[in-house]
TrEMBL record:
All copies of domain DUF218, residue ranges: 129-292
Upper taxonomic lineage: Bacteria, Deltaproteobacteria, Bradymonadales, Microvenatoraceae, Microvenator
Gene3D superfamilies: HUPs
Keyword Membrane: yes
Membrane-spanning segments: 29-53, 60-80, 86-109
Keywords of the record: Membrane, Transmembrane, Transmembrane helix
GO CC annotations on file: plasma membrane
Protein name (database record): YdcF family protein
Example GO biological process: peptidoglycan metabolic process
Keyword Membrane set for record: yes
């Protein structure tokens, strides 16, 4: 509350100073603007936990933070030179940039995708005949396989097997030609599972699919071939809604087993205002899922 009060006072002082800049000497104007900065810093130092100051300065020193500061500088420069059109343009860009990289907004958007699955606990299901783990959780090859930021999918698959909830794990997917080096995700996932004591005899690979729609089509054919009627679907919670819709569209009955939850709705004060790489990632991820759902991909 102290920080918020001092920050508001600092903004008001800065705006009043800029409004009256023609009536003030440069030294007085500089003193007022300097006082605005000191008010904010004073609020930060008044906090019991000074780690916040280090976090804030660190975030501002990153490329995303530097661009944000540059936009503020351009706004003040345009305001100083009475370029109203430029002020509105740069302000619009600043707002859009701040929202696109906002960690809190990214958490809220991700939460709208994950809300339906928050109470689903994969390990409490009845046993399945097989579990399909969608690609996207591993990279590399058989020798240098590793999980990525969606690697909880791969881990959950192994956990379900070792809990006796499925005798078969199905791994699918490979990279799209032309997008970097070719990666057989099913091969990388298989390598990780075998190192986690899942026997190769319990693993079925489907390397052909390049997107979620093709993965659903692949498991549909496999279910017909094997005679499976109870199959679980493991994917990231934020991706589950689209995956289940694609399964419904193709008349495939799968049971959702969400992993890799990303919902984060906490407000971190001033840190939540400064754009951050994680904010950009989560906002873009949510927008991508909504776009995919709208286009049926």
């Amino acid at each position: 509350m102290i920080l918020l009060t001092l920050s508001v006072a600092a903004v008001l002082l800065a705006l009043i100073s800029l409004r009256d800049r023609h009536a003030l000497s440069k030294s007085n104007l500089a003193l007022r603007l300097g006082a605005s900065v000191l008010l904010v810093l004073g609020g930060l130092f008044s906090l019991e936990n000074l780690y916040l100051l280090g976090k804030l300065l660190g975030r501002l020193a990153m490329p995303t933070g530097l661009v944000w500061l540059l936009l503020w500088a351009l706004i003040f420069k345009a305001f100083w030179e009475n370029q109203r059109k430029a002020v509105f343009v740069f302000s619009g860009i600043l707002v859009a940039y701040t929202l696109a990289g906002n960690v809190w907004l990214g958490g809220v958007l991700t939460g709208t995708l994950e809300a339906e699955w928050m109470d689903v606990v994969a390990q409490k299901h009845e046993p399945f005949e097989a579990v399909l783990v969608l690609g996207g959780g591993a990279t590399g090859d058989a020798e240098y396989a590793q999980v990525n930021d969606a690697g909880d999918r791969v881990v959950l698959g192994a956990r379900l097997y070792h809990r006796g909830l499925t005798p078969v794990l199905v791994t699918s997917g490979s990279s799209i030609p032309g997008l970097g080096s070719y990666v057989d995700v099913s091969e990388a996932t298989t390598a990780i599972w075998t190192e986690l004591a899942v026997p190769e005899s319990a693993i079925v690979r489907m390397p052909e699919p390049k997107n979620t729609r093709e993965e659903i089509a692949g498991i549909k054919e496999l279910m017909k071939e094997k005679g499976w009627t109870r199959v679980g679907l493991v994917t990231s919670a934020w991706h589950m809604r689209r995956a289940m819709k694609l399964a419904k569209d193709q008349d495939v009955k799968l049971h959702p087993l969400p992993a890799d939850f990303r919902t984060r709705t906490g407000w971190d004060g001033i840190l939540s205002i400064v754009p951050d790489a994680h904010g950009f990632i989560n906002v873009q991820r949510a927008c991508w899922e909504y776009l995919g759902a709208a286009t049926g991909r």
